[in-house]
## 1
Amino acid sequence: MARFGIEEEFLLLDEDALVPLAMAAGTRERFTRLRTGGSVTAEYLTSQLETATEPVHDRADAEAQLRHLRAIVGWHAQEQYAIAAATGNPFATTRSSVISPSPHYDDVARRLGHLSRDHEVNGLHVHVEIADDEERVRALNRIRGWLPVLLALTGNSPFADGLDTAFSSWRSVLIHRLPSSWSPPRFHDLEDYRGRIRQLLDLDAIGETSSLSWAVRLSERFPTVEVRVFDAQLEPEDSVFAALLCRALLLSDDRSLHGDRLDGIDASLWTAARSGMDARIIDPTTGEAADAWVVVDRMLAAGTPALQEFGDEEFVSEHLARLRVDGTGAARQRRALETDGTRGLAALLRAGTPAPITGRDRTPTP
């Protein structure tokens, strides 16, 4: 069974104002001493944390690791009277973000300039293991056309500056300002992929390959395809759902895709970021515009053989049924704010990373 891994990013938010907070002194050192399934590390901003599972084979293991890692970041946030928010973008911001100290992040900040002031974005990244180099490129090409519907299903950043942006994924809009973002082009082979990256480096558009912001790319550290189109997700089940879809689509041998022109994919990513599951996007099986839910059905048809092989079909179907009723993360955030203001939104965000204890002076259970 093909292994996969899940990386989740979180923003520490003030539990009342819902603006980003920097990590307390010594937090980085504490995380480096953690011995647990997966890892917790600091991210680009001092208000950000990232968790990464160990490679997993199945849904149960993935969900168990995610819940454990979320409990750790929830405990850390609780200590600081904050929320570790699994959202693509903060509700509001002071635009006073501090860059985490490292040579790599210093270089990124120099390149981004003023963009860093509100580049407070959290994503979900899914790695799927594929041993053969050239097959990884073919798998990347296969999933490109499905990127818009994957984003539509997982938009979870409707607010910015304390206002409703009218977008399902404001994070995607912020990411699009970067020089290598949204969909990559179709690649002929691995050498073509490497050549395109060399050109970006020669342009000085990026400082190193790890700065690529494409919505899907090949990992430089692992024999994996890394899908990065998703906003951070409210609940562990949302992240696992996205990961299982990625694995099925990347390992599918479907050859029926016809609509994978870069302009169509990027335009569809915009409409998906704007309207979520109410969007019209390009159906990659026909090359024509269709409602997002219609494209979901086509995507399931392409991925069902792999979903069945791995025993994931029932979970994915049930999660889609829940999305039809409860809506995406963006819809749930809007509903929480409308129902009970920022207090309701805070409660929704806090529920995604519940601390394992009630006191503020104990360490988390290993």
Note: Confidence is low (pLDDT under 50) at residues 358-366.
## 2
Amino acid sequence: MKNFILRTLLFLSPFLIIEISQGFLPIYAFTHKFYESPLYKSTVVPHNYPIYANQKGKMTGFGDLCFNTKYEIPKDESYITDELGFRNDRFIKNPDILIIGDSYTMGATLSQSQLLANQIMKNSDYKYSVYGMAPTDFSALDKMLKLNIIQKPKYIIYERVERGVIPKIERFDNSFLNKLKYQYNNLWALGDTNVFLDKIFRAYINNFAKAKITKSRGTGTQSKVEEKLFFYDTKHLKPSDEWMHINIKSLESYKKYCDSIGSKFLYLPMPNKETVYFEKIPVNTQPDYLFKLGKILNQNNISYYPTIEFYNNFRKKDNRMLYQYDDSHWNALACELISKEIIKTLKNDNR
């Protein structure tokens, strides 16, 4: 029996060494863009937030839609994650503006200085302190407020891409056991222990090897009008009314939540690339989900920024791209423009 165990260990040792070695490599060693690099994948490694904390570095990223093809475009994706794991230069406990969002707020395809939170601070001459939490939702905010991790901000901006489902708030039970669990998970963050273990368990090296063998590449849809332009989804451009109803109910609950804690709520919808550049797919008419949504939000007195209207007006006078050619996300120009629009919107508020 002992000989069998020994032979088995000797046989497996090269594979174990390869898997364990992942823990010592940079977080982006086997990924083609930053967005994938710091996200926890293992369900057994204790952590409180979705992203690796206290990370800093530089990498060259490529868009999702046509990587490993002649159309891929290299991008500087320098990055910093704070003590909680969110992509900020530093943790801000008492921000003026809190942005809760998805990969747009996290800055997929953007460098650290180009993030929405950083752009708002810079373009307001640092009048506002801004903290970005992404990818996450209102449930994380409720948890953080109840645990006194963060203090309520003056403004809460909720950003979500058009195709994204807006989830319901899951209220945090601020019990002794849940507080204890939070502290227990924090212990695993000491010395980046949970990061080290997750890098091993997520087995990215296996996926990387498989991708090389199968010659994996981006599966975006190429524009029939502009060769170097790629889209994520050109088949599902009209969400159902039921889906819209679910999203509106969630936004209503977010507005109600912000009112209850004395914060001003602003919804920031991010149009799909296919909605903005519909004529380059091409399709005959622009998808109208965001226009319909905006009308209902106005009727319900829920503040939102009409991003699609701004993009449409911008395109009438300026032909610069607002999205990455090889990715579904916005580029630095769009992020900067929207940051300035948010500042204008807040200036009209009496707070």
Note: The chain has a mean pLDDT of 92.
## 3
Amino acid sequence: MDPVTDQERLQRFIDDIATDGIIGVIDAGHWLLHRTLQLHDGIRLCGRGMNRTIIEARTEDWQHDDYTLMGLGVNNHLNENGIFLSDFNLIGADKSATRNGAALQLNGINDFSLERIKVVDGSDAGIRIAGYGVGRFTNDITSNFWNSTKRGKIRGCIAVRGSLGIELEGGVEGVLVEGNHIHDSALHGIRLPSAYDCILLANHVSGARNGIWIDRHRGIHVLHNTATRVERGCVYGGFNRHRDGEISQGLWIIGNRFQASRSTITDAYHGSPDKFTHIVKIKDNILEGGNIRLLWSRRVDIQGNDGDGGNAIITSHQVSGRVGNNAMRLLNRSPLIRDLGSNFNLSDT
């Protein structure tokens, strides 16, 4: 195996199938890289299976820190012909979970599908989908490509180690993240620093600081996910109403199981009085090892959650809404919260 030869063969193959408009299948085997594989708009690329087609950037072959193993960039025009990728394994050059780059990154694209892709040691991120194509992400980025990536799915993928598993940023819109497994991320299992109308469904995170982390958002549904061995199960913030000119709203956190050493669900991470979420439904979750702790959320509906006997629901004076029918204690209740009753401590039953 030679990284220069493998790189040339794979890149030529990708270029040829993009030109011909056909589905390309990468043979089973262990392929080595020494620089990024550049994808093309409209490409359809499959491997022979995530444990049979393995594409690796060996540390000794990679000559720079900021890397992406496989990527789709954007210049003056968006990628509008769709991308389909499936059934292969990417192994990063950075084996120590620092913040260098994403194993797989797609920028500025409408219509994409990622299925049964395994990413190992992706460093910064295993899979990153970005709604812009200019530079690195900052909260103050200005770009013509903001909110340009729409209509996609990430399904049945596996991310192992790195700083985070799966990330949607730059105003990504209308993406389904379903049935993925993320293991041993240093920071976040699934991270949405800026996304609209996306669904996180039946994913499993094991080992991370935060299982699911959401910041500037609208219309996000977190449904039937599991996060174990995490410090916090689901953490969320919101738009800054003055700087961003928008207020986050419509967050559903329903039917999940969070096993956390600190908070199970909280808006206290990077929150402030100017950075809050309207209309938050926290319902029918199974919560172990940490409290529901809200500081800034407005018009919350917290019902039907099941605790472990040692956790509670805690709301600060700025939180408004209603709470009821939880198998958890209600502590430090905000005066703007309506207690519907039937909140109880399991240890008393």
Note: The longest helix spans residues 3-20.
